[in-house]
Amino acid sequence: MLTIVGIGPGKAEGMTMEAYECLSRCECIVGYTVYVDLVRQLFPDKVYYSTPMTQEVERCQWAIEQAASGREVAMVCSGDSGVYGMAGLVCELAGEETGVEVLPGVTAACSGAALLGAPLAHDFAVISLSDRLTPWDKIEKRLQAAAAGDFVICLYNPASKGRPDYLRKACDILCETGVEEERICGVVQNIGREGESSRIMTLATLRDYAADMFTTVYIGNRMTKQLGERMITPRGYRQVNGEV
Amino acid sequence: MLTIVGIGPGKAEGMTMEAYECLSRCECIVGYTVYVDLVRQLFPDKVYYSTPMTQEVERCQWAIEQAASGREVAMVCSGDSGVYGMAGLVCELAGEETGVEVLPGVTAACSGAALLGAPLAHDFAVISLSDRLTPWDKIEKRLQAAAAGDFVICLYNPASKGRPDYLRKACDILCETGVEEERICGVVQNIGREGESSRIMTLATLRDYAADMFTTVYIGNRMTKQLGERMITPRGYRQVNGEV
Q1: For residue A226, what are the β-bridge partners?
Q2: Which of B54, B126, B217 would best serve as a mutation to test chain A binding (most A beta carbons within 10 A)?
Q3: Is the ipTM of this complex over 0.90?
């Protein structure tokens, strides 16, 4: 049996109870080095197998083979197992084979939003700025579409060493599509880990923000506002109740 | 202290460990009747306060007042606390007051996706079809924008008794925006509860599907495919590794 497990933002308390139980029960734990190291502290007595970021296929094949040989295998993913996680690749490689289960987890869009207040209380779009697996022109088109639809936008992978300026490029595209420079935005870093922080700023400030690969970014919709230290996208309840 | 707690899809195992601990610890639990009833089975010895769906403001005000009087109060939301949840309204009503914490949970987009396979492995948009709080023309515009951007689309609140034909209307809008009738779609019902089910179908079939308020709907992007009993949106790892 192979279970793809979303472990949430990183700390044990952010895992679902079924994710925790699955990891307690399994024999082997497989994953990207960074996530395996998070889990190893909680469950030291397991067989571990990790590979760096470019070796996803090898990692999945190893997990599928181990499970086929009768072992209980868990593949860990940060956040949710499906959102930019390994569930897709494992399902593709497993084909029509059964014996693969997917356990969801709290994705960074939600765990980061909780730190900021409630930026995702209305329709939203999730976009990864990594062009390792997606052509940049497709990313650009999605940014334009999300801005045109007045979605709250949550950006994953806003920057890395090889592409330090992608967040700036994305902000420029949003501005060109009509998002004003004063639009309320938010960033969170190291969610559920050491160094956790959040900050609210305008789109103009976000453009020059030094994001890294552990940053999640939120661009509000037209209604999003800052109230004290919180970023809030109203859903309209107060209007419905005649208060505003 | 007031904590807004996302309880995940419904079963105890789907809660995060910190959500479970927060509910164990608090004195009062507040929420929409349906969610409070789910939680009451797990924690019978609490003070409960629930209101039906149109009385969100009263519910939040009661929770804020109770917390201000020194009680430990948890407000429960199905799925995540922020995604169409109560975190937004509570933060608005609380203004710049401190003493409000938001705990995220597994939103239906992720828990439903896990049942289908991996439909959300690439950029996606989440749209609620409920026009109780959002004008229909805004919903229509967002459907068009999401289709134009080739996002995977996840629909919340696809139907209710008062609006049985909204899913059909949404499918028609997507078709008019260029989504082909053969596009791979998926539906899940009663995630994490009795009667849990999932089904994969084309957009043409989805158009006539009898969704209810416990249904979550997925419309794939151009790359989404059905493999056996699973709905998968490839992210491109296999292409990167030169296999396809």
Answers
A1: A231
A2: B126
A3: yes
